[in-house]
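pinning this so it doesn't scroll away 📌
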Amino acid sequence: MKPLYRLLGASISLLAVTYYLYHIRLSHPLLEEPINHEDDQASNAQKSISEPSIGTVVASQTRDNTTWLPSLFPDWHHNIFLADQPDAALSVPQNKGREGMTYLTYIIENYSSLPDIAIFLHADRYQWHNDDPLYDGARTLSRLQLTYILEQGYVNLRCVWTLGCPHEIHPLDHPADEITSETHADQVYAAAFKELFPDAPVPESIGVSCCAQFAVSKATIL
């Protein structure tokens, strides 16, 4: 039995020493494990690198209320164009072409400083074509999968296929010499396409899902 008592006594002594050292450590800050600030800094740096920069491009007019965007998405950079205000900080050469003029103006003027992801939007928060039961654009934006956008390059903000993807424009159906005062997009699209993309063939038809709101990566634009 003596070996058993000795083993039990040694175990009790070991527990007592461990308990004593534990309390000494708690009462002496110098014995605490040092905080590795370098690891924290590296983690924060990695986080900032992994999070893409995001910018919105908003086609609006003076009557529109766009305050919801910076209020709900303060970490994004918002480029809110006022198409009907030529003297605004962000405006367009001419107030025509609806959101297309705003979108193209932004790309041209910011081509060398684009964010990782650009989100092209209409001004109003609640719109019938927002892909949300409440037609809430904020809820749509909050669900964006940024990694997926970077992988795909282009993502339409409307996933529902209602209205489909109609082939509206047929650039090759009307030669340039048929252009009149009531010119349809078909008749000018080919010339515009050749000017913008001189090395690419003019497509036979152009179609896209509704409704002119989408997210696109910097790499896709470039």
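📌 and the second one:
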Amino acid sequence: MKIIYADYRESKDFIDDNTFVYIDPPYRPLNITSSFTSYTENDFSDKEQIELAQYIDSLSEKGAKIVISNSDPKNSNENDNFFDDLYKNYNINRVKANRMLNSKANSRGEINELLITNYK
């Protein structure tokens, strides 16, 4: 096993058909007030989400098994198909997740998150 800490784009040379890849990017905000989109000073906007999806496509073509997690925009807007469209060629699983951190106690609780895979 090899764990590499780097920008995700630097991992491509290490990935082949014997690789399992889990990607947990900054989640897309569910609303205006949930604006955490970066672990560093650089934002992770929809543009970066699209670039990541293109990168994931290239890893999938190499035969790697891939799992991506993200927020489910349908929690706040049932018509928001951003990830459904972006990952239309993948398996999109909506899973329940408990949210214990929120400044408003009545907003804590169960929501859907996405687990997107390139395998069944």
